[in-house]
Amino acid sequence: MNASPHADAQAGTAPLHFVDPRRFKENAHAAVNDAHLRASFRGAMDFLQAKRASHFSEADTFEPLRHVGEAIRRYSLSRLPELLERLERNLLANGVQVHWASTPAEANAIFLAIARDAGARRLVKGKSMVSEEIELNHRMAEQGVDCLESDMGEYIVQLAGERPSHIIMPAIHKTKQQIAELFAERIPDAPYTEDVDALIAIGRRVLRNEFRDARVGVSGVNFLVAETGTLCLVENEGNGRMCTTVPDVHVAITGIEKVVERFEHVLPLFNLLTRSATGQAVTTYFNVITGPRRTGELDGPRAVHLVLLDNGRTQAWRDATFRETLQCIRCGACMNHCPVYARIGGLAYGTTYPGPIGSIISPHLLGLEPTQALPTASSLCGACAEVCPVGIPIPDLLMQLRHAARHEALPGHLPLAGQGEARDWREALAWKAWAWLSERPAWYARAIRIARALRALTPTRQAGWTAHRTPLKLAPKGLRERLPQGVRRG
Predict the structure, then answer these.
(1) Considering only Cβ atoms within 10 Å of each terminal Cβ, which end of the chain, N or C, has fewer?
(2) How far apart are CA 144 and CA 116, in angstroms?
(3) Alpha-carbon distance 82 to 37, whole Å?
């Protein structure tokens, strides 16, 4: 066993694509047959739904606030280029160094350059889904830089070598018994205990020691305020505050869509985020970061960097149909209420963002080729749209992505990355034949007569239809032939 108390977190530096989104159907099938996983997720989702409902028990409590949140996000996105430029100007005036990254590779190169300039062999991280998106831990490990997660849930999944299974509660799929075994196996001198408080204390002991020695701290950002050049970070554990104040260098990373114009716009969104995510009126910490340590201040980083990541977001932004995807404030409410997610969990998706929001944003981040099955992972019950605190019409966007996966872009429209990848030439030919016959009644009648004459030869296996249904078979007589002659003529 390695003597370093965090060295075994390097289990998380194996290639991260151990669950391939291309194998979503196989992954989902395995998850559905995992009775333990299903029971764990069902209980967790019921708990989170109840917590949220306690704050939004009446529609007249939720709807007015949601309308405000939706309006703020729509307004911010409508002025996104302008607000980003204004944000950069004010951040630079505050002493924050701003970096723009089009791709995960560019973002990781920025992190590596900052780490090397700081002489850091280790990064201590607060919770950041965007850092998961760029696979920061694994890419830095390839260059000899250790990344240690300080959020307890993220630390657990890092030790296990897994992706987070939920954007708010990364280790929600783990039981206390599994965590006890993991800590006893991976953390030197950690005793086996199933006491939750003791497990948290073990993790805290390991992590607290790392903050003192870290030269670079990493965090995410929940909201960016353009008018003041402010980074807002929401958290419950205090690790985010440690990552952003103790190390000499703080590097924040977030998507370009998180910007709002004024600080007053943050307050309704914060209200919606905390109540929708964890059922809290407020979180334990709300961090407001305006720059590095100033003359006369006793603590805080000596340098602050912000990495603004695109990674497919401009593709969603440029299309009015898909721009609403970027309204998301990453609360996870859509996951908590999704019947599909509750049965298969987050790991089956094979993407950074699972569940309904992942199914509409991952095709922009990764392209439709590897993610074409995700928009079909929905019953279209509408529960996700009902609880979304910023009014994203998720079912409508799922339908649009299903269409985009199977069809080429319309003339005058820019195609999505991987558009048409799910197109089946046999299906396309069948629909063309149907359209041709439907426009020609005489030929349609002949085709129906021929099909009825050959109905005994109807195949018993009809692609995906017969996986869960009886085969389609043409009736010996159509409705028109069955009607009385007088009614038929009428």
Answers:
(1) C
(2) 10
(3) 46
CB neighbours of residue 486 within 10 Å: 7
Closest by Cα among 266, 267, 213, 221 to 240: 221
Q: Give one DSSP letter per residue of 130-153, joined into a string.
A: HHHHTTHHHHHHHTT-EEEE-SHH
Q: Which two tokens stand for residue 297?
A: 């201040």
pLDDT at 263: 95
What is the DSSP code (8-state) at residue 312?
T
Instruction: Decide if 363 contacts 374 (C-beta within 8 A).
Output: yes
Whose CA is closest to 148, among 139, 135, 159? 159
- For residue 148, the cross-strand partners are 124
pLDDT in tens, 24-73: 999 999 999 988 888 888 888 998 999 998 888 776 789 999 999 999 99
Nearest to 398 by CA among 414, 382, 415: 382
pTM summary value: 0.88
**Model pLDDT, residue 375:** 96
Q: Where is 290: in which H helix or E strand?
A: none
**Exposure b/e, 332-351, CB count within 10 A at least 16 = b:** bbbbbbbebbbbbbbbbbbb
CA distance 405 to 215: 45
d(CA 232, CA 27): 36
The pLDDT score that the predictor gives to residue 377 is 93
**Segment holding 185, helix H or strand E:** helix 176-186
Low-confidence ranges of the chain (pLDDT < 50): 1-17
Q: Which two tokens stand for residue 441?
A: 């009644």
Phi, psi (rounded to 5 degrees) for 330:
60, 50
The pLDDT, as a whole number, for residue 7 is 41
Pairing of strands 230-235, 249-255: unpaired
Bridge partners (DSSP) of residue 304 are: 96, 250
User: In sequence order, which residues have a C-beta less than 8 Å from that of residue 392 and are 6 or more positions away?
Assistant: 324, 325, 327, 328, 334, 357, 360, 385
Secondary structure of 243-278 as H, E, C letters:
HHHCCCEEEEEEEHHHEECCHHHHHHHHHHHHHHHC
Residue listed under structure tokens 């954007």: 167
pLDDT at 205: 85
Residue 101: predicted pLDDT: 98
> Alpha-carbon distance 192 to 437, whole Å?
70
C-alpha 35/C-alpha 32 separation (Å) is 7
